[in-house]
Amino acid sequence: MLSAPIALPDSPDFKRQITHVIYGHAYGGQIQQQGQLERYFAYYLEELDLLRKGISDDSWQTKCLAVKTCEDIFHVINVLRDNGESRRTVIRQLLSSRLPSENVTALDRSINLAIRLWLMVNTQEPMFEGLRHEANFVEWDDESTLRDYFQSLFPCARWQVTAQSSRLGPHFTAAFMRDVCGLKVEWTTSLHDHLRLDRRRKALRIFPYKCHLQALIDSHQSMIDREQLPIPYQVLIETKMSLDLLFPFWDDRTTALLAEEKQDFNDYGPFRAGGSLMLSDFDHWRDRLLELHEEIFQSPPVSWAQLWRDRRNPQQYWTFWVALMILVLTLLSTVTTIVQAWASLKALERVSIKT
Asked: If phi over 0 gives left and psi between -120 and 50 gives alpha, with beta otherwise, what is residue 54?
């Protein structure tokens, strides 16, 4: 027997119901902000579709899933929100009143789904890691609380930087690094993968759901709400700061890159005036930004086109091209001299033959 898909709310304003649960009561009523969250809603529906993906229906997640409706998912999210200091074993017990199931896998799978929909972190079982190729999976175990689990996913930076080494130049943007340094920009649906750099492929993963981040920030302004959010509050702030840093809204190259990639997150504010140009402003993402700066931004161009576009050091830039021009002129002059000498010898040979 095929497992049924999770039923969406019958109400036509189901998006408002989702925002009410994910971001809070006040946020759920703002229609304009709902429009800004269209990409998140698309992700939400995609996650529900992925529950019924696999080689056969026996391998679908819905085959062993405790939640059956969106209301069940909302319940799991609320339980997780209210019990951030609890371990997964306790969460299972709290869920059993509404989701009576003796199957631990069914409850764990429902918890994973709720985390993915609520906080957009790809908490998943290893057997389903291939469902999202753009996101690495992570697992919550029975030994740590939900808050400790997220603290381990987003640790504070290991590396300290001095005031001088902390400064970032105005060219430290994703568009510049793509055009000049050969960086590949990829998009991920998991916040945990943000700023993850694949050195071998020179590929950087970016979490582009800025409106989702802003919605979480807006709906967790009070100290009580911040305590209810298992992700460190500063992680949300820094993630949005890093998007403003790498994709400045005033930069033409960035506008062209985002248009090419069909990303619209820079269409929505608010933006920090001037953005941050200091690594020391980042307590959680500093190590990944530092790796990006050292491995990609400081790497030399590898093609003539990249050399022409590289204006990081104007003095070095013009010195190189002037020297190259002198070298070309010198070579042309040498070739011209050789041709002239050859022509003179030929002329002498003709004169000698006539004589």
From this structure: left
Question: Whole-angstrom Cα distance, residue 308 to residue 256?
Answer: 19
CA nearest to 196, candidates 261, 271, 292, 307: 292
- 94 to 75, 79, 99, 124: CA distances (angstroms): 10, 7, 9, 21
Alpha helices in the chain (DSSP H): 14-23, 25-28, 31-36, 38-50, 70-82, 88-95, 104-119, 146-153, 163-166, 174-181, 210-219, 223-228, 233-246, 252-261, 286-292, 304-309, 314-354
Q: 81-105 pLDDT, tens per residue?
A: 999 999 999 999 999 888 887 789 9
Dist CA 144 CA 126 (whole Å): 19
**Bridge pairing between strands 197-198 and 203-206:** antiparallel
pLDDT digits (tens, 9 = 90+) for 217-274: 887 765 455 557 899 999 999 999 999 999 998 889 999 999 999 999 988 766 565 5
**Distance separating alpha carbons of residues 85 and 144, to the nearest angstrom:** 9
Strands 203-206 and 184-187: parallel
Alpha-carbon span 254 to 293, nearest angstrom: 18
Place of tokens 């999770």: 6
> What is the spatial distance between Cα 332 and Cα 243, in angstroms, rounded to a whole number?
48
Q: Which residues pair with 123 in a beta bridge?
A: 138
Q: Which amino acid is at 268?
A: Y
Distance CA 99, CA 83 (A): 17
